[in-house]
Amino acid sequence: MARPSGPAKGDRPDLLSAGLFIGLGALGLYMGRGLESGTLAQMGPGFLPRAVCLLLVAVGLAVGIPALRRPAQAIEAIRLRPLLVITAAVVGFAYAATPLGFVLASLWLILAGSLADPGGRWRQVLPLAAGLTLFGALVFIYGLGVQVPLWPF
Q1: Residue 135: CA atoms inside 13 Å, Cβ hemisphere, count?
Q2: Residue 1 belongs to a domain
Q3: HSE of 48 in the Cβ direction (CA atoms, 13 Å)?
Q4: Which residue range is the domain that position 96 belongs to?
Q5: Are residues 58 and 95 in the same domain?
Q6: Are 137 and 150 spatial neighbours (Cβ–Cβ below 8 Å)?
Q7: How many structural domains compose the chain?
Q8: 27-77, pLDDT tens digit by residue?
């Protein structure tokens, strides 16, 4: 007897994300299986990697289980422009951070990254870039003491 066919289930993008989280967590657990965990009082070299990998698996399950019950949704085709623009912005930031300083590299990252969205408005992007750069400088340079010059001079 044939099973009644209802609406398809499974949110494909969330299921793919869940599979990546679970797969990376499982791979990390497998790769770190020889590291000693230790205890909470005396953590071994495998304690933090194992905890992070278990959290990855937990996030994958938290995303994947509800996605099984939602209606089916197809995975969109990869759009090349955002992929290339964001990659170029991040690589440019990595190369520019030390010689140009955090402020200019951060502005490059945000302004160049905003080109990934063809509908971006400069009146919104410029204040956002200034605010994020200020926030990043306060947190990373002053708060955490990251050894990157603030300015090129």
Answers
A1: 7
A2: no
A3: 3
A4: 80-143
A5: no
A6: yes
A7: 2
A8: 999 999 999 888 888 888 999 999 999 999 999 999 999 999 998 888 888
